[in-house]
Amino acid sequence: MSGPDAAVLRIAIITSSFNEFITKRLHSGAVEALCSGGVNENKIASIWVPGCFEIPLALAELADHGYDAVVCLGAVIRGETSHFDFVAGEAARGIAGISAERRLPVGFGVITAETTEQAMERSGGKRGNKGREAALAALEMVGVVAEIRGKR
């Protein structure tokens, strides 16, 4: 990572407890990636929310608490109704909006899957761990933002 020393960064991870059998795996992948990237484990805050729809509010609250980046994790699995579309869309819209408005690096690790099997594949299975990927993206964006701000 270019930019600030990862050891001094404060990172928060917001994780949905809905579909916890998936999101715990995403969370573990994110913590592992951050620590491997040099972030001190005692500077990682883990915040659990009921579902993906609640992630944007938690993100907005955290934005004013001095975190260098936030990783947002969840799993929305399609069911028999259109509820999937609303939850996934509003979570993504809210997370992106708050990140841009508050100029806060955010790693987006909300899985949207058609089936439980697809979600499992993306949370540590043959398709990798999207929690890990979101954490690495957040770390990279801390460096990108620092570089941009240094050129002002």
Structure commentary:
By secondary structure, the protein is an alpha/beta fold. It has a single domain, classed as Rossmann fold (3-Layer(aba) Sandwich), CATH 3.40.50. It has helices spanning 20-36, 55-62, 83-102, 116-121, 130-150; strands at 11-16, 44-49, 69-77, 106-113, 123-125, 128-129. Helix 1 (20-36) crosses helix 5 and helix 2 (55-62) packs parallel to helix 3. The protein is globular, with a radius of gyration of 15 Å. 41% of the residues are buried. The model has no long low-confidence stretch (mean pLDDT 94).
Concise structural overview:
With 152 residues, the chain is of the alpha/beta class.
Features:
6 strands; 152 residues; four-stranded parallel β-sheet; Rossmann fold; two-stranded antiparallel sheet; alpha/beta
Give the SSE layout:
Blueprint lengths: L10 E6 L3 H17 L7 E6 L5 H8 L6 E9 L5 H20 L3 E8 L2 H6 L1 E3 L2 E2 H21 L2
Parallel strand pairs: 1-2, 1-3, 3-4
Antiparallel strand pairs: 5-6
Helix pairs in contact: 1-5, 2-3
Instruction: Determine and state the CATH class.
Output: Alpha Beta
Mean pLDDT: 94
Poorly predicted runs are none
How far apart the termini lie comes to 20 Å
